[in-house]
């Protein structure tokens, strides 16, 4: 008796014509299933099946069986057929569960009879969901198996699976994630990792007495970040609405209302470019803690990320998809934006450095900042990215940003011209940002007015004056530390994957 635990790679993928022919053959088999069913009015497939356990559970309990062992235990399991080999009196199939676990089904003449064996050969195809029942054994080659005494088609794949032993293209993985999940372990592992990350984040917040809330995705005015919004129209209200670019202004309303520790894991939408670190639709975490500041919220952010890494990898040292190890442990360095820029470019840059001097330096370095958005702060940030960003390897908090690019942030308590804001860089990209929040409604109104001037000059990312938010601040908001972090980017930092791999169903053109 032989089995098929190590099949050879399949031939090249079928052509469109071959797929069309296979579909026709498989649809004919579906018609046969309908004609042979006693309750044919119910369709081709059974509504339920006598499943008694799962493939992962069987592997956990009987995975250590020696070759040739028999258990005397009868189990009923279901799975998708990902390999099949039919011989004269014995057929083999590998059944795969949703988590990628597999078990071998052995369909023999002696166990099921001639009619059932012949039906298996004629009806069952790769990709079909099949129920099998029989004794749990280990084959002569040590493969955990079901010696089948009964089987049924649970659902037929009328389209063939892709080659199980060759990679889908990058584009194919994104456009047909359902196939990617079937054929590639990494795709399934990433889904599990994301779930573990979200559970870990929520647990860390619970441990710190935070409350999770939900805020509107449809907003009458966009704000909370510098980003270009998606615009839609409400028939019921006869008004333009904006898809949320950030939940910040609503979460701060919650702090005004007395929810001192609040967070939200949400969907944000930004009508901007898409690349390896940006997606028009993405998952965001934002959190606010009353009577904290940007230092306290940085400590919390480090703890959130390190706990998430441990939840996924068992350690703060994670292994990326390419095999590279990356250390997220320890205390993360905190560097000054102006100080690190000065050191990197070889000249002193301060909040008092003139616009003309910064513009001349940008031109000399080939750093392009469009005139309609060019300010002192914008030039400083672009020059910092040019000189410093690429040199960061360890997780690093970049502290103290220019005031004119941070309209929602409190002025620095000791340094004029900067605000108490940090950006966290991991793996060379911005992972999170944190503030000592601006809570003075008078200064906030002044900042909004300056933003409105930029919008009038053509800056699509500038904020507008939000009177409702200002009214909330006028009722008193306590000193607060706040942070925002992309969940997709957190997965990137832990797994080493690109953003389209960390999003289960990313938007594609």
UniProtKB/TrEMBL annotation:
Localisation: Cytoplasm
Protein keywords: Aminoacyl-tRNA synthetase, ATP-binding, Cytoplasm, Ligase, Magnesium, Metal-binding, Nucleotide-binding, Protein biosynthesis
Co-factor requirement: Mg(2+)
InterPro entries: Aa-tRNA-synt_II, aa-tRNA-synth_II, aa-tRNA-synth_II/BPL/LPL, Lys-tRNA-ligase_II, Lys-tRNA-ligase_II_N, Lys-tRNA-synth_II_C, NA-bd_OB-fold, NA-bd_OB_tRNA
Positions of Mg(2+) 2 binding: 430
Binding site for Mg(2+) 1: 423, 430
Catalysed reaction, written as an equation: tRNA(Lys) + L-lysine + ATP = L-lysyl-tRNA(Lys) + AMP + diphosphate
Family per record: Belongs to the class-II aminoacyl-tRNA synthetase family.
Self-association state and partner proteins as the record states: Homodimer.
Alphabetical list of PANTHER family matching this protein: LYSINE--TRNA LIGASE, CHLOROPLASTIC_MITOCHONDRIAL, LYSYL-TRNA SYNTHETASE
Name listed for the protein in its UniProt record: Lysine--tRNA ligase
Catalytic activity, EC: 6.1.1.6
Source organism of the structure: Microbacterium marmarense
Name of the gene encoding the protein in the UniProt record: lysS
Cofactor note: Binds 3 Mg(2+) ions per subunit.
A Pfam family reported for this protein in Swiss-Prot or TrEMBL: tRNA-synt_2
Gene Ontology terms, MF aspect: lysine-tRNA ligase activity
Positions of the Aminoacyl-transfer RNA synthetases class-II family profile domain: 194-506
